[in-house]
Amino acid sequence: MAQRENKPSAFDIFIIAFLLTASVLSYVLITVFFYSGRAEGAVIEVDGKIFAEYDFNAISDNKSVEIKTDFGYNIVELEKGRARVSYSDCKDGLCVGAGWIDKPNQTVICLPARLEVKLKGRSRVDRVSY
What we know:
Low-confidence stretches: none
Number of helices: 2
Strand order of the largest sheet: 2-1-7-6
Helix content: 10-25%
Shape: elongated
CATH superfamily of one domain: N-utilization substance G protein NusG, insert domain
Radius of gyration: 21 Å
Number of strands: 7
CATH architecture of one domain: Sandwich
CATH topology of one domain: mini-chromosome maintenance (MCM) complex, domain 2
Strand content: 35-45%
């Protein structure tokens, strides 16, 4: 029996190129349109309820917010236009490792503490429908 060569056909190359192009294009569009703009404030939620809201225009200095709940202890730092979770007593500390966020619609979430820090502001996308 003759062995068949495993060379990709022209159609295979076209499909691969199309999928790579579609992936890169969708990443660029999401980055440019959904996470563009300037963050105007931060919303801190605990267990799905608003804990505090801050307007970055009203913050003149760095601000630390201590959050003590039944779910855990966190410290959220706010600066003009950005926010981060600087301390968490959760086991893995992924929320602390996320670092600073500075674009509208970006979030930092600490699941064990049921904490969400979300930046608000104007982006090119007004609403996302599911």
